[in-house]
Amino acid sequence: MLYTEMVTTGALIFGKGDYLAFNEEEHPVALQLGGSDPDDMARCAVMAQERGYDEVNINVGCPSDRVKNGSFGACLMAQPETVARSIKAMQAVVDIPVTVKCRIGIDDMDEYKDFAHFVDVVASSGCDTFIIHARKAWLQGLSPKENREVPPLNYPRVHALKQAHPNLSVSINGGIKTLEEAKLQLQHVDGVMVGREAYANPYLLAEVDSAVFGDVSAAPSRKEVVLAMNEYIQRQNDPYFKPWHVARHMLGLFQGQAGGRVWRRYLSQNGTGKNPDPNLLLNGLAALEEAQSNVKAFKDAKVG
């Protein structure tokens, strides 16, 4: 399941942009929502359901100052009753699941009992699915980036919660970079969320269906992904659209592969500026394949 970046209730209710657009091929997809007013949260949940989202996820994990000042995100871990009220209001008006993504603690509320109390209160409102970033958040003194890396991971705390609440669906997030690590986590929890690694190394996801779900059909190759995304780019008719809007999210597609650096460099150097390459992906692929051919020729000559 794909989760959007967090969108605030204010952006959806008062913003002029379309913050709910997604491609049909992205299903199942969940809207990650930031807010704390039950009426606004319910209103936005209805908007999400009407646009075809499969789930609404309340973000109770983002530690940025902007989020904190708006009284949503990780600071809500200190206000479980507020989250519970939003859950009830949202479930009263939509049929799609309403779930919660949170941390294992914030600031000095760092004991298992604090974490368990939050989950107990929110679960009592009717929420049965929790996605848990297995780090606490420091709302004072750490930047959002530091809060993704500095607080130590505590997987056993999430495992203990699942053991204590077998009736809840508990997924774990944080620091998981390989499918082997994900499969180990699935021995303790119901699901695994992969964030930064999925972005830095997106082809990791190509092996999920076979490694986790036993699907024997072949995954598309990296080249097939490039060709498919090029066709997607060609279908866009927005006058403000540029190939770089897609390509910048594909820089890591060839991570760990010969020519991967050439691919990243070509896209970065030719996707922006006054005269961006209209055939960015295809020409980037050609540069990559030339680099791979040169590497092979060098190795063959060295062996000979």
TrEMBL record:
Gene3D superfamilies cross-referenced by the UniProt entry: 1.20.120.1460, Aldolase class I
GO molecular function: flavin adenine dinucleotide binding; tRNA binding; tRNA dihydrouridine synthase activity
Naturally occurring in which organism (per UniProt): Alteromonas halophila
Keyword tRNA processing: yes
Name of the protein described by the UniProt record: tRNA-dihydrouridine(20/20a) synthase
Name of the gene this protein is made from: dusA
The keyword RNA-binding is assigned to this record: yes
Residues annotated as domain DUS-like FMN-binding: 1-280
Cofactor(s) recorded in Swiss-Prot or TrEMBL: FMN
Keywords for this protein: Flavoprotein, FMN, NADP, Oxidoreductase, RNA-binding, tRNA processing, tRNA-binding
Any matching Pfam family: Dus
InterPro entries the record matches: Aldolase_TIM, DUS-like_FMN-bd, DusA, tRNA_hU_synthase_CS
